[in-house]
Each structure stands twice: as structure tokens, then as C-alpha cells.
């Protein structure tokens, strides 16, 4: 299959609009387009599919709460996946719209998981910032993140919530205080206690 063309949602739409000049426009048939991509890496078919679905995927994600930047990134990754996996599409099992929406949902879940892993690692880095490096005893990132997640479940609900907001959602201490309608000092006190408890439960990782 030919390499995927360079993509942006808005750029591809403009390119496609320019290419239509003077051409007879047939009814949109995503099954035919996906088949053409699978068969021969048809770039025109991909451009038409991209023009139709990328803005719709982006809009769907934004209605689900994603930022415009994240929604555009996922829309592009979704259509790139369609390009790479067109041969796997089976119209007898699902319509093109359903198949593409499923890919977009999986891309969103994968991104959320990557973000969570990154934030769990950030929690561990804060816990471990004063400890000497011990590479021979280090766990893999996935094992370490699992331990951090398990330790967090043992915090009190109040402590778990402030850690979740401050480190997993990335809010400032003041934003956490505003979100929970608490004094800033209370938020800082709960965070200190939570981090102290987490350090104690993860001492063997340090």
C-alpha cells in the first residue's frame, strides 16, 4: 500500500474541495471508498473519505468533552487507522460509520490510558524525588504505576480526591480548593497527608 498522505483536518478538506472543480460528483459511498483504499491505496478515495468523516469525528469528540486540539488529533489518527486497516473492514459486520466511530472511540480510550500512565508516573516522581536512584531494584513503568494506583485506593476518600484532582487532572491547589469548595489550607494539608501515606506504602519501591 502507498504511504499515507500528510494530513490535517482543515487542510485535507480544502485540498479536497479544490480537487472537485469541474468533476461530476457521485453519491458518497464509504464502502466503495474503503474498498478502493484496501485494493490499491487510492489517495482520491482516502481524501473523499477523510473530507466526509474527519470533521464528523472531530465534532463527535468535542461534543463528548474533548478539546478542539485533542479532537482533531484523534480524528486524524482515526482516519490514518482507516487507511492502514482498510482491508479489515467487513461491511457485512458493521457499517462504515459504525466501524470508524469504533476506531475513534478506541483511539480516545488509548489516549486517556496514556495520559493516566503519564500522570501516575508523575505522582511516583513526586513521591520519589528525594530518594537515591536504585536502577537494579527498579520496577517496570507499568508495574510501578500499578502499585501507585493500588496505594491510592487505600487513601481516605477526601485524600484520594485531592490527589486525583491535583495530580491526575493536573489542577493547581487553588483550582482544587475552588472545585471542592474548601479552604486552600485544607487542600494543602490533605495533599501532604496523602503523599505521606503513599510514601509509606511505596517505601519498598524507593
Give the SSE map.
Blueprint: H1 9-19, H2 30-40, H3 43-63, H4 68-85, H5 96-127, H6 141-152, H7 157-168, H8 173-180, H9 184-201
Q: For this entry, what is the oligomeric state of its chains?
A: single chain
Share in β-strands: under 5%
Taking pLDDT < 50 over at least 5 consecutive residues as the criterion, the unreliable ranges are: 129-139
Compute the separation of the termini in Å: 48 Å
What is the arithmetic mean of pLDDT?
Answer: 76
Content-based structural category? mainly alpha
Any idea what the shape is?
Answer: elongated
Number of helices, where a helix is a run of at least 4 consecutive DSSP H or I residues = 9
- Main pleated sheet: none
Number of strands: 0
As a percent range, the share of helical residues equals: 55-70%
Gyration radius from CA atoms, angstroms: 23 Å
- Name the helix and strand elements from N-terminus to C-terminus, one letter apiece: HHHHHHHHH
Amino acid at each position: 500500500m502507498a504511504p499515507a498522505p500528510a494530513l490535517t483536518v482543515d487542510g485535507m478538506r480544502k485540498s479536497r474541495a479544490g480537487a472537485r472543480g469541474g468533476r461530476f460528483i457521485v453519491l458518497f459511498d464509504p464502502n466503495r471508498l474503503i474498498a478502493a483504499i484496501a485494493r490499491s491505496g487510492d489517495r482520491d478515495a482516502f481524501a473523499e473519505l477523510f473530507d466526509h468523516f474527519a470533521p464528523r469525528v472531530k465534532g463527535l469528540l468535542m461534543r463528548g468533552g474533548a478539546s478542539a486540539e485533542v479532537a482533531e488529533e484523534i480524528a486524524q489518527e482515526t482516519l490514518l487507522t482507516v487507511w492502514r486497516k482498510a482491508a479489515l473492514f467487513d461491511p457485512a459486520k458493521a457499517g462504515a460509520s459504525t466501524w470508524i466511530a469504533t476506531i475513534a472511540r478506541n483511539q480516545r480510550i488509548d489516549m486517556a490510558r496514556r495520559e493516566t500512565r503519564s500522570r501516575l508516573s508523575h505522582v511516583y516522581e513526586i513521591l520519589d524525588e528525594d530518594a537515591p536512584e536504585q536502577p537494579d531494584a527498579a520496577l517496570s513503568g507499568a508495574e510501578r504505576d500499578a502499585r501507585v494506583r493500588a496505594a491510592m485506593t487505600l487513601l481516605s476518600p477526601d485524600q484520594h480526591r485531592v490527589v486525583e484532582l491535583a495530580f491526575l487532572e493536573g489542577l493547581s491547589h487553588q483550582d482544587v480548593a475552588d472545585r471542592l469548595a474548601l479552604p486552600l489550607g485544607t487542600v494543602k494539608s490533605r495533599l501532604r497527608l496523602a503523599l505521606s501515606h503513599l510514601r509509606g506504602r511505596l517505601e519498598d519501591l524507593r
